[in-house]
Amino acid sequence: MRPDTPAENVDHTAEAARLERTAGLYPEDAEALLLRAAAHLELSGDRPAAAALYDRLLASDAELESPYLVRALKASNLWEYGHEAEARAIIDGIRAAAPRDPAPWVIVGESLEAHDELEQAHETFTEAVRLLLTDVPEPPAAAHPLLFGRHRVRRMLGAAHDEWDALADTVHSLPVTLDELHDPKRVWSLGSENPAELEAEIFRLRAEVGAYRTALSRPFPVAVLHWPADELTELLEAYPSLAAEYPSHEEHLAAIEAALRELASSGTPNLGIVPGTVPSYEAFAASEGTTPDDADLLPQYATTLAARGRALPWPPQRSAPCWCGSGRAYGECHGA
After folding, report:
1. Res 220 pLDDT > 70
2. What angle is formed at CA 240 by the lines to CA 237 and CA 242, rounded to 5 degrees?
3. Which of 2, 119, 198, 255 has its CA 20 to 30 A from that of 325?
4. CA angle 138-219-111, nearest 5°?
5. pTM recorded for the entire structure
6. CA torsion through residues 131, 134, 135, 139, sign
7. pLDDT for res 184
8. Of residues 195 and 82, which shows the higher confidence score?
């Protein structure tokens, strides 16, 4: 959920200000942009300013896409600079509401864990996995941190493996096993004078940092533009010269999947798809001082939408709905 770029490489205060200005230009994307701005403020050390942004979102008349995530981030931030009682009250409210989104559960569980509330963290992670993953054939990627967090806390509590821990092992893909990553005794190896032990521990820590960044960061994706069928029809009727870019909707969809697979095979990370609409594309062209029939504008439009938090991560899970909107599972549609 938060940028993970080291503070020495980024002016987090300036980046937060830039995101706030962008949110003013694009109020429909304010939630995603202001959450990123708040994250930068937390990283800069200005936690009161971050809290003010969370309050601004919660007090807004606009309906939030993830209100419980905003509340969870606010609670986590408050606890970090001395407002424990208020943070606990917000956390209790989130747990009572039982949201169906994994993200607020992850933030709440890890906040409790970070403050040595291991029993409460374990209860939180367990509530979440039972609520969200019971009778689910394949855990969605967004829920993996719940399984990993629960596994980690149970190792610190000395609890024996159960079925949810076994499921965490099956979705874990790093070369270091979860049992190794979450071994409470490994901290002692950092004080070892044995170079081999220290090297092994550094390898484990690097793997764990990679897992956290994958789970909790919201990276800027390399995004490919997707026109839904009705939008593409409207686009080509208004700007026929773009037909050279889009011979047919079927070819357009196939080209998206092919381009993303090629990027993935070349090692490009953080791939995504951004759906376009004709009105927003026309507005973007006007803002750039050009006309919508300029094909060179299309990749710039995709990049701008991605920067505003509009990109959907690719690839979806095989059992998830396909990105093309067909209603079929990805594994039976473009992921076949």
Report:
1. no
2. 115
3. 2
4. 70
5. 0.70
6. positive
7. 72
8. 82
Q: Tokens 């149970």 map to which residue? A: 154
**Residue-wise burial string across 251-289, b where 16 or more C-beta atoms lie within 10 A, e elsewhere:** ebbeebbeebeebeeeeeebbbbbbbebebbeebbeeee
Please count the other Cβ atoms lying within 10 Å of the Cβ belonging to residue 34. Answer: 22
Sign of the alpha-carbon dihedral angle for 12, 50, 83, 90: negative
Residue type, 218: R
Structure token pair of residue 254:
């196939």
Strands (E), 222-330: 222-226, 271-275, 312-313
Which residues, other chains included, contact 170 with Cβ-Cβ below 8 Å and sequence gap of 6+? none
Render pLDDT for 107-164 as a digit per residue (tens, 0 to 9). 999 999 989 899 999 999 999 999 999 998 889 888 999 999 999 999 888 899 999 9
The predicted pLDDT at position 7 comes to 47
